[in-house]
Design goal:
This protein is of the alpha/beta class. It is built from 19 helices and nine strands.
Length: 476
């Protein structure tokens, strides 16, 4: 039997029935990823296996560095085949790291390659995979169709052009590709230069002059409206923690004016203005029925030498240990008081916060929207078997697993869609084991119905995305 087989990770008969009957047939709605809309729109074949497998994949770069691989084979100027060989030499050392599972799922599902990857099998795998990459099945849009992806929500800065989303819509892709609104550039308030550079871009893309706070908020609302016209129904923030420091209109105007004049804010001043902005963003989302995603707790760019050399998002982030409860609860409560708390999905990167997030979510549920505040799937360092199980257990113990909106790839790689399969197998294995132990009813229809909902239908209902794929605004 090959390593990746039909019953991979499914350790009981009940788990196998649940997965093959209820989970595997479901399509994919990937509502949070970092795929490039430009790459999707251009839909050109990938040059080779290194481009699709290693470029931008900081999970793999971290493993290669830990294995003593020089940087030129990770992010540097080594030839593509040399980089792939360096990765192949690393793969046997990733045993018990989720990369070992993910890598071999990718080889099987994309290329029908069942050999274990190492230095000896690498040449043949390189040739076969590169041959497959030249066909239409494995172009960016071909991959989306192959994995029955109905919808992809990319992650987009408000100042970014939406021309690639327009092109995808105009050319009639069968897969809906929607932007998601991530205004974190507005929160760089401890760095006046960076903030003003971003604000200038905001002014340019809205054709508005920004001379004060009211102008800034008008421009943000304008972009929010534009994103809505392009099918956006989600916003997203990547924060250390929420902001809770109170800030009234007059103080916010004063702090904003200081920024415009080039004065960076102190950490306390920044927290106040950022809280003001985050409340404003929350109100915008609530008014339009959007879902807000909060990704909280990562400690970013902690290796300053490598940050200076390679830039951000290159594999030098870690779990943070900020206190989350007070800040998050104050933020949610302020919006709730105004009756403007949008639907939310809360993601934590530190497992110590699992029960904290699950219980805070329970305090802000609504009798009008089932599962209004979601405890999101295992994210980043937690999107592996143990992390997935811990999140599922905390949610089950403190909330309603049956209302869970399920997994996302959170990835820049087009090879990441088997992570949905991985999640589904872990979910079915967990529930199947409990069925066989008598902890859940031995009722496939009951448990299987919940699995179908978690894998696809809950997210489709919860997010309320446009029904017309890739609709282009009539105003264009």
């Amino acid at each position: 039997m090959t390593f990746i087989h039909d019953d991979f990770l499914l350790q009981s008969e009940a788990a196998r029935r649940l997965y093959h009957t209820y989970a595997a047939p479901q399509p994919i709605l990937d509502f949070h990823c970092h795929l490039s809309p430009k790459v999707i729109a251009e839909n050109r074949p990938f040059r080779d296996l290194t481009e699709v497998c290693l470029e931008g994949d900081h999970y793999k770069w971290r493993a290669m560095r830990a294995n003593g691989i020089p940087e030129r084979f990770c992010t540097g100027d080594a030839e593509p085949y040399e980089k792939f060989l360096a990765w192949a030499r690393t793969v046997p050392y990733t045993l018990r790291n989720p990369l070992y599972h993910w890598t071999h799922l990718e080889l099987v599902r994309y290329f029908d390659i069942h050999e274990l990857l190492d230095e000896t099998t690498a040449p043949a795998i390189w040739r076969k995979a590169n041959e497959r990459l030249q066909g239409k099945e494995l172009t960016p849009q071909g991959i989306l169709r192959k994995f029955r992806v109905t919808t992809v929500c990319t992650t987009d800065d408000p100042v970014a052009s939406l021309e690639n989303h327009e092109r995808i819509g105009r050319e009639g892709s069968s897969v809906r590709v929607c932007p998601a609104f991530r205004p974190d550039g507005a929160l760089r308030t401890t760095d006046a230069e960076a903030f003003n550079s971003w604000t200038n871009q905001l002014a340019a893309c809205t054709a508005l002059t920004i001379n004060g706070l009211s102008d800034f908020l008008k421009a943000m609302r304008t972009r929010h409206n534009t994103f809505h016209e392009y099918g956006c129904r989600l916003s997203d923030h990547g924060l250390n923690h929420c902001f809770a420091e109170p800030c009234g209109d007059s103080e916010a105007e004063s702090l904003f004016a200081a920024l415009l004049f080039g004065k960076s804010l102190t950490p306390n001043e920044s927290a106040k203005l950022n809280n003001y902005f985050m409340l404003f963003f929350g109100r915008l989302d609530a008014e339009k029925g959007w879902t807000k995603q909060l990704h909280l707790g990562s400690l970013r760019n902690i290796n300053s030498r490598m940050l200076a050399s390679l830039g951000p998002d290159t594999g030098y982030d870690a779990m943070g240990d900020w206190s989350q409860a007070a800040h998050l609860s104050v933020y949610l409560d302020r919006l709730e008081k105004e009756n403007l708390l949008p639907k939310m999905i809360l993601f934590n990167v530190n497992p110590v916060d699992n029960y904290l997030f699950a219980t805070i979510a329970g305090c802000f549920q609504s009798g009008e929207t089932a599962g209004k505040i979601q405890f999101g799937s295992g994210w980043w360092f937690l999107d592996q078997k143990e992390g997935i199980e811990m999140q599922l257990n905390a949610l089950s113990n403190c909330g309603l697993l049956s209302r869970f909106v399920g997994m996302v790839t959170d990835s820049r790689s087009f090879l990441s869609f088997p992570r949905h399969e991985y999640f589904r197998r872990v979910l079915c294995n967990l529930l199947g084991d409990e069925m066989e132990k008598g902890l859940l009813p031995k009722d496939d229809v009951l448990v299987g119905g919940m699995i179908k909902s978690i894998c696809f239908h809950n997210a489709a209902e919860f997010l309320a995305l446009p029904t017309v794929p890739n609709s282009v605004p009539a105003t264009l």
